[in-house]
Write a structure and sequence with these properties.
Pfam families: GDP_Man_Dehyd (PF16363). By secondary structure, the chain is α/β, with parallel strands linked by helices. It contains twelve helices and 13 strands. The protein has a domain of 228 residues: Rossmann fold (3-Layer(aba) Sandwich), CATH 3.40.50. The termini are far apart. The structure holds nicotinamide-adenine-dinucleotide and thymidine-5'-diphosphate (TYD).
Length: 335
């Protein structure tokens, strides 16, 4: 395969590129990335000399640049996005631009260049919020009901991807996954922020009552799911990926990290809630399990320990990331 990976310098994209070159050493990857605050070439040091890997710095909203890299690839894996809910609340503009317009430009180019598969990475947040203390879970039939500018922009991109399949027969697949965690995650998301704050001796901010529920997915298990979808998934289908945890609250997640890192619970600080905060996400991953044989290979506690150890062993990575622009963002978000 010759893959065009968009957003490959980000958290999941870089884990995916390292995974793919390891598992499929005959395949070639072009990583097309704008290198925003979230894109970091340090994430790809391990593969930068690999002859099957190349980087093109560019913006998915730049039609010419996209057309140039789309030539001679057979598969697109589209990760590039503005990905953080809190930043979308501060300023929705880059979310609308990259997530909606950028996806449209990629779809046009993929169609023009007869790409054989366009795989779109999306999120369970497009389905909105579930109530606490119910058995309800998202499936690929759940109606869309996004609440943040981030999730609304991802929902719009999903609709566009499906429209290009239904209207122009572009061979697409979509995966909507739950909250990822693992090595190389930018420390603005809950788990990576908590671990690095504890390592710095700082408190961890918990929004509202802390009783919000996310469905957690270890990033390597996510990469394996995308592999299965690219090789065996059915064109036009949507797969939901997640289901590692059963209704664990943010507070319980942070308490687990407190215990792994031998910290004190008084290092948890309740702060102002996020506006429009979705109460609960839960994924029914039955479809990908039954049709493609996917299942998570890590249990949550073990994956959390691996993640804590990775941040402990790579202080230069996160200290570098937490300098500069991050400081401004943190001040504004947690003032
Ligand atoms: P990330 O923020 O870590 O990385 C995003 C990458 O996209 C960065 O390398 C950035 O430079 C690049 N990028 C941003 N705008 C671009 C543009 N205009 N042109 C080219 N490149 C651009 O994101 P992530 O956490 O790795 O998420 C990857 C994808 O997975 C996103 O589409 C996100 O919506 C989706 N997703 C993430 C999670 C999660 O828990 N992280 C959960 C569900 C879905
Ligand atoms: P986050 O990692 O931002 O992912 P998402 O909003 O996409 O689910 O947040 C995960 C959960 O943790 C969410 O309920 C918000 C909460 N949260 C906090 O309580 N404190 C924080 O500092 C952050 C970043 C998130």
């Amino acid at each position: 395969m010759k893959l065009l990976v968009t957003g490959g310098a980000g958290f999941i994209g870089s884990n995916f590129i390292r995974y793919w070159l390891e598992e499929h050493d005959e395949d070639e990857i072009i990583n097309f990335d704008k290198l925003t605050y979230a894109g970091n070439l340090e994430n790809l040091k391990e593969v930068q000399e690999n002859p099957n890997y190349s980087l093109v710095k560019g913006d998915i909203c730049d039609r010419k640049a996209v057309d140039a890299v789309m030539k001679n690839v057979d598969t697109v894996v589209h990760f590039a996005a503005e990905s953080h809910v809190d930043r979308s609340i501060q300023d929705a503009a880059p979310f609308i631009k990259t997530n909606i317009e950028g996806t449209y430009i990629l779809l046009e180019s993929a169609l023009k260049n007869n790409v054989q598969r366009f795989h779109h990475i999306s999120t369970d947040e497009v389905f909105g919020a579930l109530d606490l203390d119910t058995e309800a879970k998202f499936t690929d039939k759940t109606p869309y009901d996004p609440h943040s500018p981030y999730s609304a922009s991802k929902a719009a991109s999903d609709h566009l991807v499906r429209a290009y399949h239904d209207t122009y027969e572009l061979p697409i697949t979509i995966s909507n996954c739950s909250n990822n965690f693992g090595p190389f995650q930018f420390p603005e998301k809950l788990i990576s922020l908590a671990i690095t704050n504890f390592l710095e001796g700082k408190k961890v901010p918990i929004y509202g009552d802390g009783k919000y529920v996310r469905d957690w997915l270890y990033v390597e298990d996510h990469c394996r799911a995308i592999d299965l979808i690219l090789h065996r998934g059915k064109v036009g289908e949507t797969y939901l990926v997640g289901g590692l945890t059963e209704d664990i609250s943010n507070l319980e997640v942070i308490k687990k990290i407190v215990s792994i890192m031998k910290k004190e619970e008084n290092m948890i600080e309740y702060v102002k809630d996020r506006p429009g905060h979705d109460r609960r996400y839960a994924i029914n991953s039955g479809k990908i399990r039954e049709t493609l044989g996917w299942e998570p290979q890590y249990d949550f506690d073990h994956a959390l320990e691996l993640t804590v150890n990775w941040y402990k062993e790579n202080p230069e990575w996160w200290k570098n990331v937490k300098s500069g622009e991050y400081k401004e963002y943190y001040k504004k978000q947690y003032a």
